[in-house]
Amino acid sequence: MDAYTENPRTNVLSIVSLVTSILGLAVVPIILGHISLAQIRRTGEQGRVMAIIGLVLGYLTLLGYLVFIGILVAVFVGRGMSGS
After folding, report:
1. Which residue of 9, 20, 29, 31 pairs with 54 in a disulfide if CB–CB is 3.0 to 4.6 A?
2. Are 45 and 33 in contact (CB under 8 A)?
3. What is the DSSP letter of 23?
4. How far is CA 51 from each of CA 1, 20, 24, 58, 73, rounded to the nearest angstrom?
5. CA torsion, points 15, 18, 20, 26, in degrees to nearest 10?
6. How many other C-beta atoms are found inside a 10 Å radius of the C-beta of residue 21?
7. Is residue 22 within 8 Å of residue 57, measured between CB atoms?
């Protein structure tokens, strides 16, 4: 007879970090990803990979937003300097 072994739970914040990063949010998945990694380290829960993917996607999304804003600023400053 097999002994009953309980599967570790999946950290909820790692799931939320992954979902919010897929939705295109940037800051929320970064914060939640770091918090969930600390919780996983402390409690031994599952979800480390999801938290890391949420962090990577969150940082890439943030980088994309910053590049986009930089391009917009450069375009508007360039138009303002040309006097049109």
Report:
1. 29
2. no
3. T
4. 36, 11, 15, 10, 33
5. 140
6. 25
7. yes
Distance of CA 12 to CAs 37, 47, 57, 75, 84, Å? 11, 8, 17, 42, 53
Contact 33, 14 (CB under 8 A): yes
Question: In the structure encoding, which two tokens stand for residue 49, read together?
Answer: 């990979």
pLDDT of residue 2: 57
**Which residue type, as a one-letter code, is found at position 19?**
V
With 0-12 / 13-18 / 19 or more C-beta atoms within 10 angstroms meaning exposed / middle / buried, residue 62 is middle
The tens digit of pLDDT for each residue in 35-73 reads 999 999 999 999 999 999 999 999 999 999 999 999 999
Tokens 């508007």 label which residue?
Answer: 76
Q: Give bridge partners of residue 1 from the DSSP assignment.
A: none
